[in-house]
Specification:
The structure holds 2 protein chains of 2 kinds. Chain A is mainly α. Chain A contains 4 helices and no strands. Chain A has a domain at about 10-100 and about 135-150. Chain A is elongated and about 120 Å long. Classes of the chains: A mainly alpha, B mainly alpha. The interface between A and B is medium-sized, with 30 and 27 residues.
Chain lengths: ~170, ~160
Protein backbone atom coordinates (compact mmCIF):
# COMPACT_ATOMS: atom_id res chain seq x y z
CA UNK A 1 0.00 0.00 0.00
CA UNK A 2 1.63 3.33 -1.06
CA UNK A 3 1.46 6.28 1.29
CA UNK A 4 2.28 9.90 0.66
CA UNK A 5 5.85 10.78 -0.38
CA UNK A 6 7.60 13.40 1.72
CA UNK A 7 9.56 16.26 0.19
CA UNK A 8 12.88 15.20 -1.34
CA UNK A 9 14.57 18.53 -0.55
CA UNK A 10 15.69 17.80 3.01
CA UNK A 11 17.37 14.48 2.13
CA UNK A 12 18.86 16.09 -0.99
CA UNK A 13 20.23 18.93 1.13
CA UNK A 14 21.85 16.50 3.56
CA UNK A 15 23.35 14.28 0.86
CA UNK A 16 24.41 17.20 -1.30
CA UNK A 17 26.03 19.10 1.56
CA UNK A 18 28.02 16.06 2.65
CA UNK A 19 29.17 15.32 -0.91
CA UNK A 20 29.97 18.96 -1.64
CA UNK A 21 32.05 19.42 1.51
CA UNK A 22 34.04 16.23 0.96
CA UNK A 23 34.57 17.06 -2.73
CA UNK A 24 35.81 20.55 -1.94
CA UNK A 25 38.36 19.80 0.75
CA UNK A 26 41.89 19.16 -0.59
CA UNK A 27 43.35 15.66 -0.10
CA UNK A 28 39.93 14.34 0.95
CA UNK A 29 38.62 14.86 -2.58
CA UNK A 30 40.88 12.09 -3.91
CA UNK A 31 37.87 9.78 -4.40
CA UNK A 32 36.87 11.73 -7.52
CA UNK A 33 33.25 11.28 -8.56
CA UNK A 34 32.56 8.68 -5.86
CA UNK A 35 31.76 11.40 -3.30
CA UNK A 36 28.95 12.71 -5.49
CA UNK A 37 27.59 9.21 -6.11
CA UNK A 38 27.86 8.61 -2.36
CA UNK A 39 25.91 11.81 -1.71
CA UNK A 40 23.17 10.58 -4.01
CA UNK A 41 23.09 7.24 -2.20
CA UNK A 42 22.84 9.03 1.15
CA UNK A 43 20.03 11.26 -0.12
CA UNK A 44 18.08 8.24 -1.38
CA UNK A 45 18.60 6.43 1.93
CA UNK A 46 17.32 9.40 3.95
CA UNK A 47 14.42 9.91 1.54
CA UNK A 48 13.37 6.30 1.91
CA UNK A 49 13.68 6.48 5.66
CA UNK A 50 11.39 9.53 5.91
CA UNK A 51 8.77 8.31 3.45
CA UNK A 52 6.21 5.61 4.21
CA UNK A 53 5.66 5.07 0.48
CA UNK A 54 7.66 2.60 -1.57
CA UNK A 55 10.07 4.67 -3.63
CA UNK A 56 10.95 3.85 -7.23
CA UNK A 57 14.25 4.21 -9.03
CA UNK A 58 12.86 7.37 -10.65
CA UNK A 59 12.36 8.89 -7.18
CA UNK A 60 15.99 8.02 -6.45
CA UNK A 61 17.07 9.76 -9.64
CA UNK A 62 15.19 12.93 -8.67
CA UNK A 63 16.49 13.17 -5.10
CA UNK A 64 19.99 12.23 -6.29
CA UNK A 65 19.98 14.89 -9.01
CA UNK A 66 18.88 17.52 -6.47
CA UNK A 67 21.67 16.37 -4.16
CA UNK A 68 24.15 16.69 -7.02
CA UNK A 69 23.15 20.29 -7.74
CA UNK A 70 23.41 21.18 -4.05
CA UNK A 71 26.82 19.47 -3.92
CA UNK A 72 28.00 21.60 -6.85
CA UNK A 73 27.00 24.80 -5.05
CA UNK A 74 28.63 23.74 -1.78
CA UNK A 75 31.78 22.51 -3.56
CA UNK A 76 32.11 25.78 -5.48
CA UNK A 77 31.76 27.86 -2.32
CA UNK A 78 34.24 25.74 -0.37
CA UNK A 79 36.77 25.62 -3.20
CA UNK A 80 37.18 29.41 -3.33
CA UNK A 81 39.52 29.71 -0.33
CA UNK A 82 41.18 26.35 -1.03
CA UNK A 83 42.15 27.17 -4.60
CA UNK A 84 44.89 29.53 -3.47
CA UNK A 85 46.13 26.97 -0.94
CA UNK A 86 46.16 24.21 -3.58
CA UNK A 87 48.07 26.36 -6.04
CA UNK A 88 50.65 27.32 -3.43
CA UNK A 89 51.10 23.71 -2.31
CA UNK A 90 51.51 22.41 -5.86
CA UNK A 91 53.96 25.17 -6.76
CA UNK A 92 56.16 24.17 -3.82
CA UNK A 93 56.12 20.54 -5.04
CA UNK A 94 57.02 21.58 -8.59
CA UNK A 95 59.80 23.85 -7.26
CA UNK A 96 61.29 20.78 -5.57
CA UNK A 97 60.89 18.60 -8.66
CA UNK A 98 62.60 21.22 -10.81
CA UNK A 99 65.70 20.88 -8.58
CA UNK A 100 66.04 17.19 -9.47
CA UNK A 101 65.68 17.25 -13.21
CA UNK A 102 64.58 19.09 -16.28
CA UNK A 103 61.71 16.70 -17.14
CA UNK A 104 59.11 19.34 -16.38
CA UNK A 105 57.57 21.02 -19.41
CA UNK A 106 58.84 24.48 -20.15
CA UNK A 107 56.79 27.36 -18.90
CA UNK A 108 55.38 25.36 -16.01
CA UNK A 109 55.78 28.34 -13.69
CA UNK A 110 52.92 30.09 -15.49
CA UNK A 111 50.48 27.37 -14.39
CA UNK A 112 50.41 28.89 -10.93
CA UNK A 113 50.02 32.51 -11.94
CA UNK A 114 46.41 33.12 -11.11
CA UNK A 115 44.47 36.07 -12.39
CA UNK A 116 41.95 37.99 -10.31
CA UNK A 117 38.79 36.15 -9.22
CA UNK A 118 36.17 36.37 -11.97
CA UNK A 119 32.45 36.21 -11.17
CA UNK A 120 31.66 35.15 -14.75
CA UNK A 121 34.08 32.21 -14.67
CA UNK A 122 32.85 31.25 -11.21
CA UNK A 123 29.24 30.99 -12.42
CA UNK A 124 30.24 29.23 -15.62
CA UNK A 125 32.16 26.68 -13.57
CA UNK A 126 29.21 26.35 -11.20
CA UNK A 127 26.84 25.70 -14.12
CA UNK A 128 29.07 23.01 -15.60
CA UNK A 129 29.62 21.41 -12.18
CA UNK A 130 25.89 21.43 -11.45
CA UNK A 131 25.11 19.60 -14.70
CA UNK A 132 27.83 17.00 -14.14
CA UNK A 133 27.09 16.53 -10.44
CA UNK A 134 23.35 16.21 -11.15
CA UNK A 135 24.06 13.26 -13.46
CA UNK A 136 26.37 11.58 -10.95
CA UNK A 137 23.94 12.34 -8.14
CA UNK A 138 21.04 10.82 -10.09
CA UNK A 139 23.10 7.65 -10.53
CA UNK A 140 23.83 7.63 -6.81
CA UNK A 141 20.15 8.11 -6.00
CA UNK A 142 19.18 5.17 -8.19
CA UNK A 143 21.87 3.02 -6.57
CA UNK A 144 20.61 4.14 -3.17
CA UNK A 145 17.09 2.95 -3.96
CA UNK A 146 18.53 -0.36 -5.18
CA UNK A 147 20.50 -0.75 -1.93
CA UNK A 148 18.12 0.65 0.68
CA UNK A 149 14.73 0.99 -0.97
CA UNK A 150 11.70 -0.65 0.61
CA UNK A 151 10.28 -3.55 -1.33
CA UNK A 152 6.55 -3.42 -2.12
CA UNK A 153 4.55 -5.32 0.49
CA UNK A 154 3.44 -8.73 -0.72
CA UNK A 155 -0.32 -9.14 -0.03
CA UNK A 156 -0.93 -11.98 2.41
CA UNK A 157 -2.15 -15.15 0.72
CA UNK A 158 -5.56 -16.41 1.86
CA UNK A 159 -5.39 -19.64 3.87
CA UNK A 160 -6.52 -22.72 1.89
CA UNK A 161 -10.25 -23.41 2.24
CA UNK A 162 -11.12 -26.73 3.93
CA UNK A 163 -12.79 -29.24 1.57
CA UNK A 164 -16.57 -28.88 1.49
CA UNK A 165 -18.15 -31.92 3.24
CA UNK A 166 -21.30 -33.50 1.80
CA UNK A 167 -24.57 -32.55 3.60
CA UNK A 168 -25.77 -35.18 6.09
CA UNK A 169 -28.26 -37.69 4.71
CA UNK A 170 -31.91 -37.14 5.85
CA UNK A 171 -33.14 -39.54 8.58
CA UNK A 172 -34.99 -42.65 7.37
CA UNK A 173 -38.75 -42.47 7.90
CA UNK B 1 5.51 8.17 -29.06
CA UNK B 2 5.05 4.85 -27.30
CA UNK B 3 6.99 3.65 -24.27
CA UNK B 4 9.63 1.82 -26.26
CA UNK B 5 10.31 4.89 -28.41
CA UNK B 6 10.69 7.05 -25.29
CA UNK B 7 13.19 4.61 -23.79
CA UNK B 8 15.05 4.39 -27.08
CA UNK B 9 15.31 8.20 -27.29
CA UNK B 10 16.59 8.35 -23.72
CA UNK B 11 19.13 5.65 -24.55
CA UNK B 12 20.40 7.44 -27.66
CA UNK B 13 20.77 10.74 -25.79
CA UNK B 14 22.76 9.00 -23.06
CA UNK B 15 24.92 7.22 -25.65
CA UNK B 16 25.73 10.49 -27.42
CA UNK B 17 26.45 12.15 -24.07
CA UNK B 18 28.81 9.33 -23.17
CA UNK B 19 30.60 9.64 -26.50
CA UNK B 20 31.03 13.40 -26.03
CA UNK B 21 32.33 12.82 -22.48
CA UNK B 22 34.93 10.29 -23.60
CA UNK B 23 35.82 12.44 -26.56
CA UNK B 24 36.52 15.42 -24.32
CA UNK B 25 38.79 13.27 -22.12
CA UNK B 26 40.91 12.40 -25.16
CA UNK B 27 40.65 15.85 -26.74
CA UNK B 28 42.17 17.60 -23.71
CA UNK B 29 45.74 16.25 -24.14
CA UNK B 30 45.51 16.59 -27.91
CA UNK B 31 44.52 20.26 -27.56
CA UNK B 32 47.37 20.73 -25.11
CA UNK B 33 49.86 19.15 -27.52
CA UNK B 34 48.75 21.67 -30.13
CA UNK B 35 48.92 24.55 -27.60
CA UNK B 36 45.26 25.23 -28.24
CA UNK B 37 43.70 27.84 -25.91
CA UNK B 38 40.78 25.49 -25.14
CA UNK B 39 42.81 22.86 -23.29
CA UNK B 40 42.61 24.56 -19.83
CA UNK B 41 38.82 24.67 -20.20
CA UNK B 42 38.69 20.97 -21.13
CA UNK B 43 40.80 19.97 -18.14
CA UNK B 44 38.77 22.27 -15.90
CA UNK B 45 35.51 20.55 -16.92
CA UNK B 46 36.76 17.31 -15.38
CA UNK B 47 38.46 18.81 -12.33
CA UNK B 48 35.27 18.68 -10.17
CA UNK B 49 35.05 14.90 -10.60
CA UNK B 50 38.69 13.82 -10.75
CA UNK B 51 41.90 14.66 -8.90
CA UNK B 52 43.75 14.55 -12.27
CA UNK B 53 47.06 13.57 -10.65
CA UNK B 54 49.43 13.08 -13.64
CA UNK B 55 51.19 10.07 -12.08
CA UNK B 56 47.85 8.26 -11.85
CA UNK B 57 46.74 9.12 -15.39
CA UNK B 58 47.50 7.56 -18.74
CA UNK B 59 49.21 9.82 -21.24
CA UNK B 60 48.28 10.61 -24.82
CA UNK B 61 50.08 12.93 -27.22
CA UNK B 62 52.68 13.40 -24.48
CA UNK B 63 50.26 14.77 -21.87
CA UNK B 64 48.03 13.19 -19.20
CA UNK B 65 44.42 12.50 -20.07
CA UNK B 66 41.79 14.71 -18.49
CA UNK B 67 40.95 12.06 -15.88
CA UNK B 68 42.91 9.48 -13.90
CA UNK B 69 43.19 5.79 -14.83
CA UNK B 70 40.41 4.68 -12.48
CA UNK B 71 37.99 7.31 -13.71
CA UNK B 72 38.89 6.51 -17.33
CA UNK B 73 38.12 2.86 -16.60
CA UNK B 74 34.74 3.76 -15.08
CA UNK B 75 33.77 6.01 -17.99
CA UNK B 76 35.01 3.57 -20.64
CA UNK B 77 33.21 0.72 -18.89
CA UNK B 78 30.05 2.82 -18.69
CA UNK B 79 30.22 3.44 -22.42
CA UNK B 80 30.76 -0.27 -22.97
CA UNK B 81 27.71 -0.98 -20.83
CA UNK B 82 25.72 1.48 -22.92
CA UNK B 83 26.76 -0.33 -26.09
CA UNK B 84 25.59 -3.73 -24.82
CA UNK B 85 22.48 -2.34 -23.06
CA UNK B 86 20.06 -2.84 -26.00
CA UNK B 87 21.18 -6.45 -26.36
CA UNK B 88 20.34 -7.16 -22.70
CA UNK B 89 17.28 -4.98 -22.16
CA UNK B 90 15.69 -4.24 -25.54
CA UNK B 91 13.99 -1.10 -24.12
CA UNK B 92 11.30 -3.18 -22.51
CA UNK B 93 12.03 -3.61 -18.85
CA UNK B 94 12.41 -0.92 -16.22
CA UNK B 95 13.54 -3.14 -13.39
CA UNK B 96 16.83 -2.64 -11.60
CA UNK B 97 19.47 -5.40 -11.69
CA UNK B 98 19.77 -7.59 -8.62
CA UNK B 99 21.41 -6.23 -5.49
CA UNK B 100 23.68 -9.27 -5.25
CA UNK B 101 25.09 -8.54 -8.70
CA UNK B 102 25.80 -4.93 -7.75
CA UNK B 103 27.56 -5.85 -4.52
CA UNK B 104 29.63 -8.54 -6.25
CA UNK B 105 30.78 -6.24 -9.05
CA UNK B 106 31.42 -3.31 -6.66
CA UNK B 107 33.46 -5.24 -4.10
CA UNK B 108 36.81 -5.22 -6.01
CA UNK B 109 36.85 -1.48 -6.74
CA UNK B 110 35.67 -0.60 -3.24
CA UNK B 111 38.38 -2.77 -1.66
CA UNK B 112 41.06 -1.40 -3.97
CA UNK B 113 40.03 2.22 -3.36
CA UNK B 114 39.96 1.67 0.39
CA UNK B 115 43.35 -0.06 0.34
CA UNK B 116 44.91 2.81 -1.60
CA UNK B 117 43.25 5.48 0.56
CA UNK B 118 44.52 3.79 3.74
CA UNK B 119 47.99 3.43 2.18
CA UNK B 120 47.88 -0.38 2.54
CA UNK B 121 49.01 -0.81 -1.06
CA UNK B 122 49.52 1.27 -4.19
CA UNK B 123 47.74 -0.10 -7.26
CA UNK B 124 49.24 0.54 -10.67
CA UNK B 125 47.28 2.41 -13.32
CA UNK B 126 46.49 -0.70 -15.36
CA UNK B 127 44.62 -2.58 -12.61
CA UNK B 128 42.90 0.68 -11.57
CA UNK B 129 41.58 1.02 -15.11
CA UNK B 130 40.41 -2.60 -15.25
CA UNK B 131 38.58 -2.46 -11.91
CA UNK B 132 36.92 0.81 -12.95
CA UNK B 133 35.96 -0.69 -16.30
CA UNK B 134 34.28 -3.70 -14.70
CA UNK B 135 32.25 -1.50 -12.35
CA UNK B 136 31.41 0.95 -15.12
CA UNK B 137 29.88 -1.83 -17.25
CA UNK B 138 27.06 -2.22 -14.73
CA UNK B 139 26.23 1.45 -14.19
CA UNK B 140 24.12 2.07 -17.32
CA UNK B 141 21.75 -0.70 -16.22
CA UNK B 142 20.94 1.40 -13.16
CA UNK B 143 21.15 4.86 -14.71
CA UNK B 144 18.97 4.15 -17.75
CA UNK B 145 16.53 2.05 -15.74
CA UNK B 146 15.99 4.81 -13.19
CA UNK B 147 15.66 7.56 -15.76
CA UNK B 148 13.47 5.34 -17.93
CA UNK B 149 11.08 4.73 -15.05
CA UNK B 150 10.93 8.48 -14.44
CA UNK B 151 10.24 9.25 -18.10
CA UNK B 152 7.47 6.65 -18.38
CA UNK B 153 5.88 7.78 -15.12
CA UNK B 154 5.73 11.39 -16.30
CA UNK B 155 4.27 10.28 -19.62
CA UNK B 156 1.40 8.55 -17.82
CA UNK B 157 0.39 11.73 -15.95
Amino acid sequence: MNGQKSSPWTPALAGGAAAGILSGIPFVNCLCCLWIIGGGILAAYLYGKNTPAVLTSGDGAIVGAFAGVIAAVVDSMISIPFQAINAGFLKRIFDRLADYGDALPSGWETWFVRGPFSIAWFFLGLLISAAIFAAFGALGGILGIALFGKKPAVPPTAPPQPPQSAPPAPPLP
Amino acid sequence: MDDRDSLRTLYLMTLVGGLVWLGAIVLAPYARSRSSPVFPFLYACFSPVCHQIPARSFRLFGFPLAVCARCLGIYTGTFGGLVIYPCRRRFERVRLPSLRLFLTVSAPIVLDTAGNALKLWNTANGPRFILGFIWGLLLPFYFLTGLGELVLRRKKR
